[in-house]
Amino acid sequence: MRASAPRRLLPALLAVALGCSDPAPVRPSGFLERFDELAPGRGDQARLVYIDGAADFSPYEKIWVEPVVAWSADDPSPDLEALAAHFDTELRRELAREFELVDAPGPGTLHLRAAVTGRSESGASAELEVLDAETQRRLVAVADARGSEVARDGEDATPEQVVAFWARRARVRLAAFRSFDLTEKAHEASADADTP
Q1: How many domains does the chain have?
Q2: Could you tell me the pTM of the whole model?
Q3: DSSP output for 60-92
Q4: Which one has a higher pLDDT value, 70 or 152?
């Protein structure tokens, strides 16, 4: 029997998102639909987070990453497009450490969409969602903005450091979801085997 959504939501809240400590609001860019489903993140999560607490990540061994886009109310600048391309490269490099990268939907495949929605000298904003590639069921969605808090040694962050930070977070948090659900299934199978 699968865990209830409230029990599953606790590790989910502890183990997803891109991360943020700045309380300033993030406004919808139009990239993510159903933006009202997102709620304020906690701790080091993204500013706004949606997690499907009933989702089972254990079957997902593959991920289909759509090319990251520059999404702006105005025409995207070349700098924003360059940052989106850098984010795309970082996401693929990081996610390939945990998942098989594929180019189309299929069984056991996550579908990741992301957009860089803003850029400054020392930060960036982005929106990202992860879906089941076959059903398009939304599993995770986040909206975040970051700056100097991702820099090391007290230096100013660059937008490139910010998107690299998000890419690492995406890999770690999605892998944590899968690991949690695989462990939960193993415990359930063990308990079923021990039942007379």
Answers
A1: 1
A2: 0.82
A3: --EEEEPPPEE--SSPPPHHHHHHHHHHHHHHH
A4: 70
